[in-house]
Protein 1
Amino acid sequence: MGASLLRLHFHDCFVQGCDGSILLDATPTIDSEKTALPNNNSARGFEVIDMIKAEVDKACGGKPVVSCADILAVAARDSVVARGGSRWEVQLGRRDSTSASRTTANNDIPSPFMDLPALKSSFQKQGLNERDLVALSGGHTIGFSQCQFFRNRIFNENRIFNETEANIDAEFARERRASCFAGSGDANLGSLDGSPARFDGSYFKNLVEKKGLLHSDQALFAGGSTDSVVKGYGSNNGRSFWFDFASSMVKMGNIKPLTGNRGQIRVNCRKVNA
């Protein structure tokens, strides 16, 4: 579940800030982000957060002391560590939102079909720079993606931009077409890099070899301003990537947190306190 828990934190922070809004179920007054296009039938791990929340509350004397937003942040860090990645000190004190926004999730969570200018704009909107973009995209060194998000790329055609998807290794595309078909298999999974259970620098080496699974992955190494960063992260055993990833995760975790008397500490991560 490591990649999924990391992704939950990322998708949470890009919508209203790191406030646990992604965890809220739909109600007549909550426009749940779970059904937004980037999350629907894709985001997972909610029951794991529920389990962690129960154990944390138990350790805190049976009271809700630690927010669901903080649990997401710590779970993301621990998931990276469990997969062999870098460790960082998670800043705590976030509080939970009393609202969610499916519209904002649809608009602000980066799409796997984005090109480099769109990606840079999306991250800049959150106060994250170009190096943060590349480092945080390196989270794709673990986990998988559904066929529906990379089908256009491996069939050498990107219908989103009506342009030929030429920046792809032919053998890599052929291998991926063995489990992702032209007209079926939307939910079939493909690994985001060659070692999806290990947090390492192979994701960036793959990009240099034109083996990025998603259009938005390969956009980071396609003759643009991020090429040199990708090359750097793919060398020296990924040490510079580890350092920058940790730094960018702290930075992302500080996007518009609710503190002080704003928000609440939810009793149940899935719903606003009564």
Note: The chain has a mean pLDDT of 94.
Protein 2
Amino acid sequence: MVLSHAASDSDVSVHSTFASRYVRTSLPRFKMPENSIPKEAAYQIINDELMLDGNPRLNLASFVTTWMEPECDKLIMASINKNYVDMDEYPVTTELQNRCVNMIAHLFNAPLGETETAVGVGTVGSSEAIMLAGLAFKRKWQNKRKAEGKPFDKPNIVTGANVQVCWEKFARYFEVELKEVKLSEGYYVMDPEKAVEMVDENTICVAAILGSTLNGEFEDVKLLNDLLVQKNKETGWDTPIHVDAASGGFIAPFLYPELEWDFRLPLVKSINVSGHKYGLVYAGIGWVVWRNKEDLPDELIFHINYLGADQPTFTLNFSKGSSQVIAQYYQLIRLGHEGYRNVMENCRENMIVLREGLEKTERFNIVSKDVGVPLVAFSLKDNSSHTEFEVSDMLRRYGWIVPAYTMPPNAQHITVLRVVIREDFSRTLAERLVIDIVKVMHELDELPSRMIHKISLGEEKSEANGDNLMVTVKKSDMEKQREIINGWKKFVSDRKKTSGIC
């Protein structure tokens, strides 16, 4: 006799995950559900939504590492439950962080003696690293002004208008005036001469960028240092330099070892670098190192003992995972100088492949430079019929995420596209991207030019009743945007109808 069993609603082991009531009904989006659900259903629901994310390796907008070796992935998973701040409980992890700080300081030519240890700290990224470096400059400047009996309530910092938004955050959060050197067409980094002209007695530091987010270009830190040395000598000030090497810090030492941008220059007092960019670690790790102990005021360092031992700490946050610190140490000892050099040379070679492929189309101007971060920034030679934003949008149909953006003041009339070349962006992908860009340009060329011109002008002509008088009506920005969207929808719809693709 065969016994049958009627499964209850709570017995999901006999159900397909997709057929269970947990997946077939909607879950609240912004409130916690009243009841629990099985782990299989929770996993499937989340995994299904995440499928709609873009492919990280095809996200060419990001500088952040998207691939690591399986052995490092294992180390990350094995340490994912370690809280880095528990230094007494995890002394080896703390030791690995100290080793990383010293390796990076030596890489940046810090003036360290044989037995001297470097001054630095791991952070969750370059944004936190910049905040810490900025605070050190501000406190040191304030202490000096107090000792001299001078006002210390109006600090400022000089940067180029091309700086990453974290510098604006630092200025706003910690009440420091941000003095920006404006850009100009064809020159998209900070001009050292103009920067030094803006320096005054309240300047806590000048921030130079080694690898501009906009076009990858290295700013001339050597010239900035020389000009600032001269100004300090003339004025009696001692205005220092911070180098934001978030993108270029792991590139310059291997591709351009003779380039002077680091602690070889006397006024460079601190440097930040992103381990999760060309340090080749997944997102969540940055570093800041100081020239020597005198450049980091003691009063900024806290000492705690409630986790088991006296622990010095200088961070904006407290708890954080240990995985990324361990991953950084893995990359440093696994690759060494030879391995990092090979990776960076390969990135540069693939950048050249992409750049030359785009140049052969004769449709683009290359905005990026040969020396700098391996990326290709480019703009349309003729954008009267279609724009860089449309190219970016249509590339998404092929899976590529290529950002389009306008330059900062005073070059905001320039729009560019940017492709960041990371370790996992191969020559094959570079060639494939060129092919897809050519396809996109052909598709855009098929768009009726009269419609594009009409939309881009934002004008509409109407004939007055009873006569031939033509009246031009200016449209609002919202109306222009709506017409562009509707025009594109019609174009895509028409293509679907005639393409013959099911």
Note: The chain has 14 helices and 15 strands.
Protein 3
Amino acid sequence: MENKEYSEALNLLSGLIKEVRRLDDKLLLVDIDLLESKLHFSLRNLPKAKASLTAARTAANAIYVPPAQQGNIDLQSGILHAEEKDYKTAYSYFFEAFEAFNALENPRAVFSLKYMLLCKIMVSQADDVAGIISSKAGLQYLGPELDAMKAVADAHAKRSLKLFEIALCDFKAQLGEDPIIHRHLSSLYDTLLEQNLCRLIEPFLRVEIAHIAELIELPVDHVEKKLSQMILDKKFAGTLDQGAGCLVIFDDPKADAIYPATLETITNIGKVVDSLYVRSAKIMA
């Protein structure tokens, strides 16, 4: 797994699970199911990752599980919930994991705290981040990991893409090399970029792409690519005039009320015809 040979790791685990089930070693089974969940998650197979985690929880409920292992289960639960964009539930699991690791002075506590802060940022509660970091528990873990999340929270609170990019550059090891943080921050960056672009183009009917790029302080080709993607995703109505290097924005097309009304009339006529057919069938009978 550490070598990222996930398929090979799963093949090894499948044989191991059968042997351990014969031994009926529940604690070892919890370890294996949890590891299997992490492997499926790494392969982006969320349904199987959830199934393995459920199996780990079921096995854990039948025995006493050491606090560190319970913390690992909660941490994995939080990661899977965050992947499904259920950040509030994920936060509660990360909090449980943090409390378990913090009591044991386990180094994984800082990662649980980092993911807690991530959840706050993702639900647009970036203002809470400073409060959590300055709390009694948070102060124990001050360092580059928490500084990185604070920088992201500040950028999000100010809706500043430039500050966001500076944070990603300054804390590359803490943000870019953690696959879970990186995936969610990429999604957050895209959302922030779209919101900023929509706000900037709102007053215009026709505007140079270079002018938008200058306002948002990003490269022209990057802005052009994002605008074309937003047009295809129907985030706004418009077209790119690449010859002139301009964005042309159309007024939102107004839906014609006659079509829904016509469909409703035809539906009602159909119901009348059906009822008349049933009535005539009874008379003929």
Note: The two ends are 74 Å apart (CA to CA).
